[in-house]
Design brief:
The complex is a heterodimer of chains A (233) and B (215). Chain A is an alpha+beta fold. Chain A has a seven-stranded mixed β-sheet with strand order 5-6-7-4-2-11-10, sandwiched between helices. Chain A folds into two domains: 1-131, Beta Polymerase, domain 2 (2-Layer Sandwich), CATH 3.30.460; 133-227, no CATH class. Chain A is globular and about 60 Å long. Chain A contains ten helices and eleven strands. Chain B has eleven helices and seven strands. In chain B, the strands form three sheets. In chain B, strands 1-3-2 form a three-stranded antiparallel β-sheet. Chain B folds into two domains: 2-65, Winged helix-like DNA-binding domain superfamily/Winged helix DNA-binding domain (Arc Repressor Mutant, subunit A, Orthogonal Bundle); 101-213, no CATH class. Chain B is mostly helical and 215 residues long. Chain B starts with a helix and ends with a helix. Chain B is elongated. Classes of the chains: A alpha+beta (233), B mainly alpha (215). The interface between A and B is medium-sized, with 22 and 19 residues. β10 (119-122) of chain A pairs parallel with β5 of chain B.
Chain lengths: 233, 215
């Protein structure tokens, strides 16, 4: 685990060691810490726009004593596409997860980048833009990990979320290929509503299920078209 | 664990508060409020500021745990009194280095509002690194605007240091240069000479600055 002060000191060290200014996006626990929603995290999740920036960041981490942990990548993500580069200190009990635009099945869309308005500059050369709480919620809801529930509850209970943005982004995620976005979000929210841990306006959950129905309808239409074309051939 | 215990209290009283606000918000007595502030300060959630009447005001935020500072907070720290501090939403934080007055001046002019421009005049008292200011302002195409506002600041604010000749020489407009705005669409009725000299429309009149002269 890394706490807020150690994380700040580490980012400052990295910012001072980087040879040029780079902009990265923070998601997950790191984003929540920078927004003051969480005290500590196990993974420092960062998303990069360009492979060259990620390479430079990795080089800098290596120069500070971090080592790539390929074994952990396979243990955590298997052979999934878009798995992050993972680096850790031999003595440290936290790990860097460095993604490139895609976070396993979620896509860090242009809308998400635009909404990441809160910016933190560390040591001069490391600029971290923090994902919006609505986007943290969407990404956390598709992971299927139980430990993310706590974070989802914290995001919902401590922020005034704009549900229109969340619904739009879920739709956008499906368009970009993350087919679980709407279902994952709906399922997770319903579970927590049933446990009476969170409150979400009914029109939001209704809209979510309508979106899901629409997605299913479109999918069956497409598959019918495909089979028809196959038969035709 | 300790963090979680106080997390909800911090969320409930987040913002700028006096002790009375905290008592009222949490429905507790003064002694309990003082103890709570003591605990929260130890955990790093509290930053204390003083009003001109020496009354204490507490900034309560989970972000206070980090040592980083936002541009707006740094800007307000450089203001002589509460009247010139700005209340705005700020999303840019700097960690591991101090924000210089030179950075703040360029930041304020980029904001492009009257409140920021008036308050920014006080920053000329703190400018030490003129070459750095030149490099910064050149990047943002604000060199002439800074020289013009400096002249206005010299007229109204005490203890403004002299601008180096080199800065003045480098920022003086050329014949072919066009007039620039500090704030689009705003010009001055009173500072016509300065406007002409620097080819910059100044968005202020004498009346806007009378309050400053007293400080």
């Amino acid at each position: 685990m890394i706490n807020i002060n150690t994380q700040e000191a580490l980012f400052n060290q990295i910012g001072n060691a980087l040879p040029k200014k780079i902009v990265v996006y923070s998601i997950g626990g790191t984003a929540m810490m920078l927004r003051g929603l969480k005290g500590e995290t196990l993974d420092i999740d960062l998303v990069f726009d360009k492979e060259s920036d990620r390479e430079l960041f990795i080089k800098t981490l290596v120069s500070l004593g971090f080592k790539k942990d390929e074994k952990r990548v396979i243990e955590t993500y298997g052979l999934k596409k878009n798995a992050p580069a993972m680096l850790r200190l031999e003595s440290g009990d936290f790990i860097f997860d460095l993604f490139l635009n895609k976070i396993i099945i979620s896509v860090f869309s242009d809308g998400m980048k635009k909404r990441a308005a809160q910016t933190h500059e560390f040591g001069g050369n490391l600029v971290i833009r923090v994902a919006d709480p609505s986007d943290i919620l969407i990404m956390k809801s598709v992971t299927g990990r139980a430990k993310d529930n706590e974070d989802i509850i914290s995001v919902i209970n401590n922020n005034k979320l704009n549900w229109d943005i969340i619904l739009e982004e879920a739709k956008e995620q499906v368009k970009l290929g993350n087919e679980h976005a709407i279902l994952g979000l709906g399922e997770k929210l319903e579970k927590l509503i049933n446990q009476k841990i969170i409150f979400i306006p009914k029109p939001v959950t209704d809209a979510l299920w309508n979106l899901f129905k629409e997605q299913v309808k479109n999918k069956s239409k497409k598959s019918k078209e495909k089979t028809f074309e196959k038969k035709k051939r | 664990m300790r963090y979680e215990k106080y997390e909800h209290i911090v969320q409930a009283i987040e913002g700028t508060r006096t002790i009375d606000d905290i008592q009222e918000k949490l429905k507790i007595n003064r002694a309990k409020a003082i103890y709570l502030l003591h605990r929260l300060r130890r955990l790093g959630y509290i930053r204390t500021k003083y009003l001109p009447n020496k009354k204490r005001v507490y900034s309560v935020s989970p972000l206070n745990k980090q040592k980083g500072i936002s541009y707006l907070e740094a800007f307000n720290n450089n203001m002589p009194n509460a009247g010139f501090r700005i209340s705005d939403k700020e999303d840019y934080f700097v960690h591991g280095k101090t924000i210089k007055a030179e950075d703040l001046l360029v930041y304020a002019l980029k904001k492009g509002t009257i409140r920021y421009v008036i308050s920014s005049l006080f920053l000329f008292r703190k400018i030490e690194d003129w070459p750095y200011l030149y490099r910064l302002s050149k990047k943002e195409n604000l060199t002439r605007q800074i020289s013009a506002l400096y002249e206005v600041a010299r007229l109204f604010i005490k203890k403004v240091r002299k601008m180096p000749k080199r800065f003045r020489r480098l920022t003086i407009p050329k014949k072919e240069d066009k007039y620039l705005f500090v704030i689009k669409g705003f010009s001055s009725d009173d500072f016509k000479d300065t406007e002409k000299k620097w080819k910059v429309y100044i968005p202020l009149n004498r009346a806007d600055l009378e309050e400053i002269r007293l400080l």
